[in-house]
Specification:
354 residues; mainly beta; Thrombin, subunit H; Pdz3 Domain; 3 domains
Length: 354
């Protein structure tokens, strides 16, 4: 469902997550050293061998590092997926871990090994969480790729337990990049996602999206479904969305370091339901934070922001997604409308929570 240039999508907890593909290496000037790819698990000795750069080969070598995340209590339903990174940490979605944390979290490896886990840090705004394992086993950590290097048509793989079917592998392509999405949920923010047609269903939440080298380029999180509502009752229609690795890696590193994730902020409240083209600042006193970036740049309640630097802004949700690609302290140019006149101004972005 489209809303003023921003897709409203459903989160997909309820089973195991999916594994998402890593990015291809970028080319540079001159001769570069050949990319040997990340270190991956050896396939089971009893399994028929496949070339490591095939779908089957990547699935064999990455699957041991993808885990199912469930409750330590047998009476608590639901769950999701995650993947092991360096240091025996597990990355997953916040909407997976937050539903399980109170009763205790237990993860299951692909070989059936179990370990209890605790939440190291979580960021509802980005829908990411990091878990620490009490009894980790020896698997190769997955590496983050560079989602900025992904292009439409790149092949990707999702591995997880959709609808509770553990070890499921699906394959597809990157259908779009920089897709602005607004996940359903009170605390989840707006951001640009990777869109894929690899089958993702409830239970794929928190798994990685990998390329044919096995690097993580995204964290599966959301889907659009047909029908009157968007949720777990309906299945995949080829519209799945993953948090790009460029954002995920930054957030994960800050969570491990026990630092809160911070985002660029403009210091104004937007009317996210306005049909007006552009980001409409709420036309009420206090909608522009006194002393904040917007106030310092001369913006007022009722102003409509139409451009951020050279990018057109179609809605308040889209502007919030654009700000996720910026850092506190960045200086940007804004174009806005007021009383029929167009004004251009520079603004130094603040930080969320300031």
């Amino acid at each position: 469902m489209a809303l003023s240039g921003m897709l409203v999508v459903a989160l997909i907890a309820g089973g195991a997550g999916g594994l998402v593909g890593a990015t291809a290496s970028s080319s540079g000037d001159g001769e570069a050293a050949p990319d040997q790819g990340p270190q991956m698990n050896e396939p089971p000795p009893e399994a028929p061998q496949r070339d490591p750069d095939t779908i089957a080969g990547v699935a064999q070598r990455v699957s041991p590092s993808v885990v199912y995340i469930g409750s330590a209590s047998p009476v608590i339903p639901g769950g999701g997926s995650g993947f092991v990174i360096e240091g025996d940490y597990v990355v997953t979605n916040d909407h997976v871990s937050s539903e399980l944390e109170e009763a205790g979290i237990r993860i299951e490896y692909s070989d059936g090994s179990l370990s209890d886990a605790t939440v190291v840090g979580a960021d509802p705004t980005s829908d990411l969480a990091v878990l620490a394992l009490e009894d980790p086993i020896d698997v190769e950590p997955l590496e983050f790729g560079d989602s900025e290097e992904v292009i439409v048509g790149d092949e990707v793989i999702a591995i997880g337990a959709p609808l509770g079917l553990a070890g499921t592998v699906t394959q597809g392509i990157i259908s779009a990049t920089d897709r602005p999405v607004s996940p359903e949920g009170e605390d989840v923010g707006q951001f640009y996602a990777l869109q894929t047609d690899a089958a993702i269903n409830p239970g794929n939440s928190g798994g990685p999206l990998v390329d044919l080298q096995g690097r993580v380029i995204g964290v599966n999180s959301m889907i659009i479904t047909m029908g009157g509502s968007m949720g777990e009752g309906t299945g995949n229609i080829g519209l799945g969305f993953a948090i790009p690795s460029s954002e995920a890696q930054t957030v994960v590193e800050r969570l491990i370091e026990n630092e809160g994730a911070t985002y660029a902020d403009i210091g104004a409240e937007f009317d996210l339901s306005s049909p007006t083209a552009g980001a409409v600042i709420v036309d009420e006193p206090g909608a522009v934070e006194r002393g904040g970036p917007a106030d310092g740049a001369g913006l007022e309640p009722g102003d409509v922001i139409t451009f951020l630097d050279t990018r057109r802004v179609n809605s308040g949700q889209e502007l919030l997604a654009m700000l996720r690609d910026r850092s506190p302290g960045d200086e940007v140019e804004l174009v806005y409308r007021r009383d029929g006149e167009t004004v251009t101004t520079d603004i130094v972005l603040g930080a969320s929570g300031d």
